[in-house]
Amino acid sequence: xxxxxxxxxxxxxxxxxxxxxxxxxxxxxxxxxxxxxxxxxxxxxxxxxxxxxxxxxxxxxxxxxxxxxxxxxxxxxxxxxxxxxxxxxxxxxxxxxxxxxxxxxxxxxxxxxxxxxxxxxxxxxxxxxxxxxxxxxxxxxxxxxxxxxxxxxxxxxxxxxxxxxxxxxxxxxxxxxxxxxxxxxxxxxxxxxxxxxxxxxxxxxxxxxxxxxxxxxxxxxxxxxxxxxxxxxxxxxxxxxxxxxxxxxxxxxxxxxxxxxxxxxxxxxxxxxxxxxxxxxxxxxxxxxxxxxxxxxxxxxxxxxxxxxxxxxxxxxxxxxxxxxxxxxxxxxxxxxxxxxxxxxxxxxxxxxxxxxxxxxxxxxxxxxxxxxxxxxxxxxxxxxxxxxxxxxxxxxxxxxxxxxxxxxxxxxxxxxxxxxxxxxxxxxxxxxxxxxxxxxxxxxxxxxxxxxxxxxxxxxxxxxxxxxxxx
Amino acid sequence: xxxxxxxxxxxxxxxxxxxxxxxxxxxxxxxxxxxxxxxxxxxxxxxxxxxxxxxxxxxxxxxxxxxxxxxxxxxxxxxxxxxxxxxxxxxxxxxxxxxxxxxxxxxxxxxxxxxxxxxxxxxxxxxxxxxxxxxxxxxxxxxxxxxxxxxxxxxxxxxxxxxxxxxxxxxxxxxxxxxxxxxxxxxxxxxxxxxxxxxxxxxxxxxxxxxxxxxxxxxxxxxxxxxxxxxxxxxxxxxxxxxxxxxxxxxxxxxxxxxxxxxxxxxxxxxxxxxxxxxxxxxxxxxxxxxxxxxxxxxxxxxxxxxxxxxxxxxxxxxxxxxxxxxxxxxxxxxxxxxxxxxxxxxxxxxxxxxxxxxxxxxxxxxxxxxxxxxxxxxxxxxxxxxxxxxxxxxxxxxxxxxxxxxxxxxxxxxxxxxxxxxxxxxxxxxxxxxxxxxxxxxxxxxxxxxxxxxxxxxxxxxxxxxxxxxxxxxxxxxxxxxxxxxxxxxxxxxxxxxxxxxxxxxxxxxxxxxxxxxxxxxxxxxxxxxxxxxxxxxxxxxxxxxxxxxxxxxxxxxxxxxxxxxxxxxxxxxxxxxxxxxxxxxxxxxxxxxxxxxxxxxxxxxxxxxxxxxxxxxxxxxxxxxxxxxxxxxxxxxxxxxxxx
Lengths: 472, 646
What we know:
The complex is a heterodimer. By secondary structure, chain A is of the alpha/beta class. Chain A has helices spanning 2-21, 25-30, 49-62, 112-126, 132-140, 151-159, 279-289, 321-337, 346-350, 357-364, 377-380, 384-391, 398-417, 425-436, 457-460; strands spanning 67-74, 80-86, 99-104, 142-146, 196-205, 207-209, 217-219, 226-233, 294-302, 306-309, 342-345, 368-374. In chain A, helix 1 packs across helix 4, helix 1 runs parallel beside helix 8 (321-337) and helix 3 (49-62) runs parallel beside helix 4 (112-126). Chain A starts with a helix and ends in a 12-residue tail after the last helix. The model of chain A is unreliable at 1-31 and 393-472 (pLDDT under 50). Chain B is α+β, with helices and mostly antiparallel strands. Chain B has 13 helices and 23 strands. Chain B has helices at residues 10-21, 25-29, 39-52, 100-115, 120-128, 139-143, 265-274, 309-316, 369-386, 401-407, 475-481, 518-532, 571-575, and strands at residues 2-3, 57-64, 70-76, 87-92, 130-134, 184-188, 194-196, 204-206, 217-221, 280-286, 305-307, 413-416, 471-473, 486-494, 498-505, 539-550, 553-562, 582-586, 593-596, 600-603, 611-620, 626-633, 637-644. In chain B, the strands form 6 sheets. Chain B has a 7-stranded mixed sheet with strand order 1-2-3-5-4-10-12, sandwiched between helices. Chain B has a 4-stranded antiparallel sheet with strand order 9-6-15-14. In chain B, strands 16-17-21-19 form a 4-stranded antiparallel sheet, with no helix packed on it. Classes of the chains: A alpha/beta, B alpha+beta. The interface between A and B is large, with 51 and 53 residues.
């Protein structure tokens, strides 16, 4: 147990190291305080899938004894499902040692995890000879690292306009006309970003500009009229059916296609027709099921600073007491190591998820599983609210933590609704998801409507200054 | 989905076909249809029919079983674009020991192909619609019927470590008395929980201590403890029960259900097929569950399954073996009592639901009230056409394909064992473990009623039970109604148990009729399938007119009609969003629409028998301009009409 805790603690801490590390290693090295690294990787920018692959191959070349790059199969778009295996053959074959499985980026626009995964591999190798704990981990354990579970979505986000990048790219007919993905958003002004369209209609609108910042839009109070209407996402009626942008690329949630408490679309939006229908989910599940040595799982998402565990839904019931005590121990350890991170249960602290990945790995495969929502505005913006949050007594009262997060989320949702034109990529998907709710009679099965991850708004609000105080 | 090599040059196809047909062709020609067929015989028959009816029949290989046999789909339709027409899917033999279903499906292929030219109803079915037939979803399981030693096994050929010892299939049953059947052993055992059945001394019943009944018998599957772990026959060959492997009410963590939903190549092949065939508007399965001999009751729940206790007792002897090596096994010296029941590790206290978070709404587990009448009508017709009044042994339906068909695919979906008993049904309340019409389960637990078409007045299902309606013990009736199904008990000296008796029900006899009945059953079931094919919804443009309003404006009016019997979607298909709403679209540029209905409208469900929906638009246009309207129903075909503005 102790070694398992150590393992988990080190792995949990990696998330912080990675994000705190930009300035890149190359630059920090100039300060003279760091050792000479064998492989230099950039951690001051995002990597598309080709770059991740080439970095993994560089790492493999540098440490051929420990590292093995392979592909678990192809995504729908034909990209490799990249896997890096870390194993010290001197201490035994892979399947004879307990293993940690780390993955990220199942939501195409939650990209940070891939860099964290890359960093993890790099870190464990660079420090193998320097840090005894790392050596012990690598010698006694195996690591399987899949930097991107949704490489199609990742590249769409990084290279395309970014609209609708949470989903994967298996076509879905969102507007019930028998044709799939034929009316996506369009970058009308050619600036590389899908924005909102507003229209000036003096005295006939339901929006007005904010007095605090003319760029921001806010709904007018009941009984008044404004000068603006918001038409929705930038685009055209590509299929000529009288509706705009109602059938974008994909239209599902790759993190609802797993086999524990899987539910059909009307209970869980985005679940598709059956578990492991997606080629990406299937490739990963085939790998997991053939590697019973995997004992621990980390699935990185963005964002909000959460250390999540299952269950994803209330009706699954609580885990057995023995399991809960292990999760609690690790989760609280994680909170101590990761400033601004909260250890919460998915359904009671975040929102309900049916058929989520770590439900499957815990319930179906018996692997101890966490999902960290990386990054939290509090780490960057030392606002009074976040200071208070940091000083708040932490667990064990998980209920209080859950309430607090909910309060925070609902505040953020309000604020996002007022916003007219963000440029930050981080907010795109939150906005896209919301706009699509207005799209048609059958709301697109893209996101769970109430459960669209509103915490992404945190990233978008500059300095938290425009965010309503979470307690206010 | 592996198509046969139809895309290859014709000569190669012919050469391949001839080569493949060479040996089994003779079998396909044999006049003897009244028999059960091996995989090779079935395949030959299907190939023969496909070849003899090219242009009408297409044989498609949906994928391979664990042992490399094909899951065949026979697509029967005339003309092109059959995939846009409402279709009937017939699937059979998910349970390996339910081979009668394969024969009924084959009979249907024969009937449709041979009657197309002569029978107007069949011609209409194949001209206007399509029929997709999957005669044997579990070819590996079905093959066991033709083995030297027959057992009750219904699973596919996946190797499963049932006793968690790291070895696969190392302790299977043996035919100890050499009669060709794996039946059961009963043995006098002071610790055994069963007693001789008071109504039939050949049978056993669980003894009720509270009623002063003495026990003293144990029951096992026939065989020895090959791996010496103290359990007899706990890890035999196979497998996953394919009708326990689908997504509706999937029975998690139960024997034979597989590692997860749709874990098997056979079930995945079926799923990948059906989700591409969105025109499938009705499903008929021949399997061990029933909703045709007895339709769903007032609450929308199925009639109780009629199960055999003697076999359940044999399965019970293995229950402990499945816990070995798991946390569910009683740990020695490490247990403590806790409030709320029993020994072991107490559950952790549940998380509280945060204020403002709505209670989760569970999926429906009973037929929507608005759909019940359709099920009843079809069931009545089934009984009338087949003459079947009494179901044989049946199973509860959790994880069955036909349940997926209704609850998640959203179409009327039926299942029948395909044959019946001539024995009258028992008087009400005769020893069912749960009464008929018991409250259905709200699965998963958590309660909350369906808020579907039943509306506020609809029934609110209770939570809790595993099965919606429980089961009715069927041993006595089965032993009486099927005298050939029982093997008399004979003594045997067992190496570890000592003196035992071997006997009980005969494999396959409870799940399949005598071969002599196949022909008549095939005919009546083909007639029923053709009847189903007459029920599809059918959208039509009943009215489409224009009136000039002057100034280049025109009023356009339309009435969309469902001329079929079934609605364009079941009520549950609307609730579950699994049936696309019927799309009504006016073929004009969006900007020339001035007012009225939207260019593209949707009807969630339009009832049949001539029900209509009206539309009106004001459009800007020119005299002489043609305007087209189209209506597209996923399950009811499509229609379009054109008028000229004047």
